[in-house]
Amino acid sequence: MRVVVLCSSPFSETGCAVAARLAQAGRIPVGALSLSSWDRQTLLRKVGQWGLGDSIRFARAKVGPTKANRQQIRNTYLQKMLAREGGVFRSMFEVAQHYGFPVKPCADQNSPQAIEQLKQWSPDVGIFTGGNILREATLKQFRLGVLNSHLALLPEIRGMSSPEWSVLQGVPLGITIHIMDAGIDTGPILLRREFAKPPDCDSFPDLRNRMIAAGIDLIVETLAALEAKSVAPTQQTSQPANVRAHDSQYYVMHDRLKALATRRLREMRPSTSRNTADHAGLHNG
Amino acid sequence: MQTSNSVSANSKPAKAARALREALGLIQNPLRIAPLISKIAADSVRPALSPRHLYSYSTSKIPTPDALKSLIGWILRAQRSDGGIAAYYSFLTGYSDSYPEVTGYIIPTLYDFAQMTRDNALISAAEQATQWLYSLQMPSGAFPAGLHNSKNTPQPSVFNTGQILQGLVRAYIEKRSAEALRRAKAAGDWLASVQEPDGAWSGAGAYQGQSHTYYSMVAWALAQLAAESGEKRHAEAAEKNIDWVLTHARPSGWIDGINLQGHPSYLHFVAYLIQGLLECGILRGRNDAVAAAERAAWSLLRKFETHKRLAGTYDTDFKAGQKFACLTGNAQMSCVWLRLFEVTGDSRYLNASLKINDLVKQLLPQNSRPELNGGVAGSHPLWGAYQPMRLIGWGAKFFADALMLEQRILQRPESRATASVKPLDVDPPRFEASPCAS
Lengths: 285, 438
Hints:
- The complex is a heterodimer of chains A (285) and B (438).
- Chain A has 285 residues and is of the alpha/beta class.
- Helices cover 39% and strands 17% of the residues of chain A.
- Chain A has eleven helices and twelve strands.
- In chain A, strand 3 (83-84) and strand 4 (87-88) form a beta hairpin.
- The longest helix of chain A has 24 residues, at 204-227.
- Chain B has 438 residues and is mainly α.
- Chain B contains 14 helices and nine strands.
- In chain B, a hairpin with a 3-residue loop joins strand 5 (314-315) and strand 6.
- The longest helix of chain B is centred in the C-terminal third of the chain and has 21 residues, at 287-307.
- At the A-B interface, helix 2, strand 11 and helix 11 of A face helix 11 and helix 13 of B.
């Protein structure tokens, strides 16, 4: 199966971890299509998300002197996937060099140049770890589609801040692997698993990091199932979006509500049953 | 807010004459130049400092109680010596004359804040405003259109009478004064008497002589009166108007018939329509009205969350028009979303309100001249198409309403007005089939 990894930056830890994990599972990607890192928009977004201090530390870890920074990873639950002899993979270029596949930076994953590159790779499946909202012309370059690991159960919680909204709305935590379409998290579902809150997890950044790591394992599992034809996409029911009761899209959560969701997360009884990995509490949902 | 009943007031020559008159105001009082330049500079620079991306929303460090205090302070400073409240403070010409319509519906806001803070000065301000309105009521029971200006012959106005009725009803609730109820009933009777058989208001008392669906605000006032007067004709008039408004609803959620000539459908008017329909629907137990209001409000919520802002004007089916922000409309939509949170329990409404409140809060002038501090601009940037170069009284009123509602919901106090608030500790219902009005 020919797999392409799509990522928001060559320094995306999730993108690197997906590529490395696939390679470790014997599925070396045919290529990685990455957005360039140094545009103003990306830098501002990261500074906005992480704050200036963390952004500088991240940049130092990724492009600073190798010896001083080899062990620094933001999402420590990806450590095992990113581990290499003498340290960790710091960029997609390092992963690609190690496993032998090309990385193509682009300004827009929907650009004619990006589509031309995809045509050359002729992929069966794409794994989306970040970047642009993919347009129809890009999506149709993948024979089976582009997979996304959504950090909530679909179709209950679509959109942004999905773990936070799951907790606030009383929906079980979960991860859904689905095929992307033109809507937001509206594509056919391939795999849906509940995620038990680990006992020592008491913040959303930590929960999110664990779920990202668990989602990567699920992607590998889904690819195997797709190859074995043991999984079939299940369409999500289409509903009119202008009727609230039928619209399960959620948006970035305001800090006031996030504080409430965090309180509820801490009050949640941890479930220790059926954990499949040290970072995750996945079980069939 | 409606400034006049006539179409000619919005003609190009009339607008040009107004602009010229305002510009001359700056020459008469050059001290206003510095704050004007400072505000224009701040509004010009702000977009560059507020990058918008998928994960962002505008945040404000101003605590809600502080913002509320400055808003109410602005309203009190805008109260004129006659007891009425100025329509606006212009950066060019200063305060306007007292404005009956705005004075009327600011009265409930003053009483609400007085209840929250136990500040008797606010009660006194509300009483002065009420007394001033009494002096303006016409023998028919109607209230006049436009700014208070003794040079013009007063013309009765349906919309202004409706808005003032809100204040009279609230004055009656607070004081149980027979005079307030008598005057409110007279206003309600007049509104019922000039209503068309189909439930609309048009003709001489209507803005530009035309019927408008945003007169659902009048229906809301009549429903408030009916709840106090217990008189069937007021309730029937309210519901008849709502029935007429509902005939204009489109599948997209958009409701036609705002029907303004000479200017576009500013968000302020779209929000009036939704708010009037929602509140009247809640008071009258009309689920069809609440559902129609919710459909429109949800469409705007999706737009706000996707684009991180609401447009200044909208066209049929919520097609966004001009890009400036109509801050009053933002505040009104916050009120609508917060009320819908109370009605449906869906936290997405609360989430959107918290964000839009932060957005408007950060635009309140602070540490400036007293007439500016806490004022809500007609447009952001200041030179946008809606009430340019002005801080407007109804903007401060709706934003104060929104922040008080936000506080009540987040603090969960026990009060009559918030009896239907679902406590946040209880998970709200999800994916319910239809909203229910209390």
